[in-house]
């Protein structure tokens, strides 16, 4: 799990921009004054809040510490209800022996949490009438705010409280499709901090002494206790349902034409990019259309629904597809444009998610869209945080989900959107026939040829978006596709790093160093994605297929085959190691004999690709050129290699 940069902001910014707005009737100062007469509230005097005195902090367990905080929550809500005359939706719960239940197995257990009284998750009895094992357990799906407490700063083995809250926030965002954001609170001895995360940013407030400044905690409790679900990060356009004893989701798609279409999921196809706090958070479901009366449309064919968060300055994927087809019509003719459509997914419906009458995005989650000028980077005390026990669906075996190497901006606003595709596909890595796999590769290369012929690049080719539909291969996930001449650079990309071109991982041109440098050369082109990078990703996928698999069920790769696999795919960001493997001569003889024809075909592609890189970068660096000329060199060399095959 990679949380990205965490930003520290002032308490005032957190309260005014991040927390749900206070009800107009609530006056924090009056509530604080009224609590001095409440036996569970604030007691004025030198010691401050009686529930958290210095001598108690290092002597009691975390669970015991939260008992008075729970009482304080009840006291605050009791006083606030007198003004708003509205019951709160939450109860304060401390940690039990069992972890909250979740669709993903995980041992994370927050010390305490604010829990929805009207639970979003169905009772386990609705899944299985004869199984009451989980009927009394709390669920991650119902946690609005996670709490973590540390009371012993002398124990170096004790896991950092910040790490623990990030684990909880991460688990909620990765496991629950109904979440757009979530909140947390940490208490480190007497210092309290508020936390918030969404797909655009993770924020933490400056600390405050909860004994001396209880008004901040009072404000927090009043904000969340009477907030609407969508203000706390839940998505009102997704509803959890129970179908045949299993959890599914009813997902609304607000089309650009003004229609609201509801689809019921049948299974999760792909959700591993939701495993990072920041990024697109893409989830792909197999779905069926429902009618307005809530029933499934008779004889409705299965479709694919994609839910994701795109950069606000980037077009939606359906719009990008139409731009590509328009360029093909204009430059290659209608016949070529129609032929190209066979190699891409067909869009049935598309639209931006609407929440509370507005397009859903970072602007709807943060009431002040710009970060304050005085915000600072907040360092975590750990280098790496563990992932959930269950990896995301749609992730190729042996590959972790990792963040790309591009520099991250502090806050990149995103727009929440959904697309429905006609084609129910099979990912390449699920195919069982090597012949079918390489036929699919050829179709994916044909799709890339169409893109490159009108000066577009895909930028994100991986095993997860090279798909098979019937007898044809298709290329999907064009949300990062762009025109080659585009100067737009989008950071925060999540994917399978093992399939990324070496130069893209390193963000520099790597092949120029293998040719003599012209005397007096001073010009250095800025690095840009080019068509060869797309083609290299296809080669990495083919190499993974050949060196990861065996030709018979139950057999194991040889030691030599495994050695080569680990050389190609070290399982960590390591552009130099991968570059060395890419430049090396590949040993196909370590593979099963039945793989040799396909392996030699992949090696032929490998040699042609290396030569294309050398020729392109030698010519590009020969004399000073503008970047558009450099990109033309890549396109021309790639076009020549396509024609040779």
What this model shows, in words?
By secondary structure, this protein is an alpha+beta fold. Helix 11 runs antiparallel to helix 13. The radius of gyration is 27 Å and the shape is globular.
Secondary-structure map:
Blueprint (H helix, E strand, L loop, with lengths): L5 E4 L1 H8 L9 H8 L18 H4 L4 H23 L5 E5 L17 E5 L7 H4 L15 E8 L10 H15 L5 E8 L2 E8 L3 E4 L2 E2 L4 H12 L12 E6 L2 E9 L5 E11 L12 E8 L12 E9 L5 H16 L1 H8 L5 E6 L1 E2 L2 E2 L2 H4 L10 E3 L23 E2 L10 E8 L4 E2 L6 H20 L2 E2 L8 E4 L2 E4 L6 E2 L10 E2 L6 H5 L24 H18 L10 H10 L6 H9 L12 H25 L6 H18 L1
Parallel strand pairs: 1-7, 4-5
Antiparallel strand pairs: 1-17, 2-3, 3-4, 5-6, 6-7, 6-8, 9-10, 10-11, 11-12, 12-13, 13-19, 14-19, 15-16, 18-25, 20-22, 21-24, 22-23
The first-to-last residue Cα distance is 41 Å
| Morphology call | globular
Query: Helix amount, in percent?
Result: 25-40%
Number of strands: 25
Number of DSSP helices?
Answer: 17
List low-pLDDT spans. Answer: 53-59, 127-134, 386-391, 400-409, 491-495, 623-630
Summarize the structure.
With 645 residues, the chain is an alpha+beta fold. The chain contains 17 helices and 25 strands.
What attributes does this structure have?
645 residues, alpha+beta, nine-stranded mixed sheet, seven-stranded antiparallel sheet, 17 helices, globular
